[in-house]
Amino acid sequence: MGVVEPGIVGLTVGTSGVVFATTPSALIEPDGRLHAFCHAVPGMWHFMGVMLSAAGSLQWYRDTLAPDVSFDDLLKEAESIPAGSEGLQFLPYLSGERTPHPDPLARGAFIGLTLRHSRAHMTRVVLEGVAFGLKDSFTLIQNAGLGDIKQVRASGGGTKSVLWRQILASVLEAELVTVNTTEGGAYGAALLAGVGAGVWGSVAVWQRRAQRVSRLQVAPSPPRRMLRRIESHMWCIGNCIQC
């Protein structure tokens, strides 16, 4: 994904969700909620946050509550629902959690269901809940010293959805782009092997020749007040579960 310089963050929305950020020096997250390792690029380091049920949350939701409906149809329904899902919230801790709550006993939940909520609301709030879960990793990375995020490079099956990309861009408040591969890990390993074997002189040379970044996929942000309210509720509920 070309995440080899500070300010560019990789986001993979697969069964699990992975946030990967390069740092120019060895940084730590004081409470140990992020992975901090040497980068594959010499002289660089990285932070990584992982949530266990990202697109896996949507897979569970479809298989359990709407098994005869296609993903495309479910997501199409959700496009009509406003940001915030009219007060409904979803916690994506379906198999415990890893970042930011390293707790195998954390559990998922729909919170705030009322008679006015439809299947479309529930679909959208699954996407929103995962997006806010991923934002936890972004917040930890920034607070640990990374600084400003210039661009988010997204891959994985979840990013095929235009709606989900728009929600992610709004929640993360960053430019969100896609790259010319959906298999980030395997593709990256092959390219690094090419650098090691001398096919390319360096990672920087490979980036100029082999990588392509899509047009920006930036969604109009919902009212900032609503974002802050939802994020605050997610944080409070998540910490209550951890306690």
Would you mind describing this structure in some detail?
The chain has 243 residues and is an alpha/beta fold. The chain has one domain (8-185, 193-242): 2-Layer Sandwich (Nucleotidyltransferase, domain 5). The protein has seven helices and eight strands. The strands form two sheets. A six-stranded mixed sheet has the order 3-4-2-1-7-8. Strands 5-6 form a two-stranded antiparallel sheet. Helix 1 runs antiparallel to helix 3 and helix 2 crosses helix 3. It is globular, with a radius of gyration of 18 Å. The protein starts with 7 loop residues before the first strand and ends with a helix. The model has no long low-confidence stretch (mean pLDDT 86).
CATH class: Alpha Beta
Strand count, sense and barrel status of the largest sheet are: 6 strands, mixed
Helix tally equals 7
Overall outline: globular
CATH topology: Nucleotidyltransferase, domain 5
Strand order of the largest sheet: 3-4-2-1-7-8
Kindly state the mean pLDDT as a whole number?
A: 86
What is the SS-derived class?
alpha/beta
Euclidean distance between termini CA atoms: 36 Å
